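Not sure how to ask, but would you mind making up any protein sequence you like and the tokens describing how it folds?
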Amino acid sequence: MKKGVILVNLGSPDSPNPKDVKRYLDEFLMDERVIDVPFWARALIVRGIILNTRPKASAEAYQKIWWEDGSPLIVISERLKQKVQQKVAFPVALAMRYGSMSIKNGLQELVDKGVTEVFIIPLYPQFAMATTETILVLARQLQKDHFPDLKLTDLPAFYSNPDYIKVLSKRIAKHLEGKTFEHLLFSYHGVPERHIRKRDVTKSHCKIDTNCCVTASKAHQFCYRHQCFEVTRLVAEQLNLTENTYSTSFQSRLGFDPWLQPYTDRTIERLAKQGIKNMAIVTPAFVSDCLETLEEIAIEGEEIFQEMGGNTYTTVPCLNDDDEWVALLSKWINEWADSGVETTAI
């Protein structure tokens, strides 16, 4: 078998124009694993409400962070792909779950090069319905419909992988070197609480309280909340952070259902009100900077912090195309090529 690799990230509109943003949001928000309600209700929410109000505001947000050569997420992911390609001996493709750089096109690119076995790498450290799961489910549907002779293997969530924790910790430490901060906030993308309960394989463990995420359980394999808190714990240990100098929060809630808490915006506000004058923030749910990290966290977060009396607000970049991250990804790919990796069960 000829092997190949496909790196998969979230995606981006083709431009910050409201029409392109609307088209992108429609594909993204109509995904049943993003807004997990019946189709009629999802269509009413998305196409009846959100797409009539949100595209203009989202386009303005994209315009704030758009680079001269395109979407930051796409540009960064392309750089990552190119660097990884230099370190492995077989074809590497890049795809996005949403937008014009589709997974189907990425798989076709590999097939056209003679690839018969593909290693899918969802570029998310933690497992979630709206990230890793939707990528893998779509990839397998595409395999069934269009690439029946293609063998697919995927990289499981790597949130607790010791090498990943070391690379992430070094990235944080390097960026904060010489900078003054009293508190380091770990902000993760939020998800509805029902997503956590839906993926509880025990059907009883996930209470979303102070205990379930720190009590050993099979549920943790697919528990996004546990995996986020675990990244915070492991990085804090690696960086020798002391108690009360760091915390975890969740950003980007949508709608009125309960989402994972505490919320990032309210946490930033609370820290400033408590007298924290210098804070830093890192976003370990992403490996590549994107709209959320560059606009919601870096711009809006700083505005909230300073309005509430804060002074210095430092945003730690994602891993992006950091050389040590490239080396680690390449190592995982080469290990798969040599021995294979267990496929995640959905």
Remarks:
- Strands lie at 3-11, 92-98, 117-122, 151-154, 183-189, 246-251, 278-282, 312-315.
- The radius of gyration is 20 Å.
- Confidence is low (pLDDT under 50) at residues 342-346.
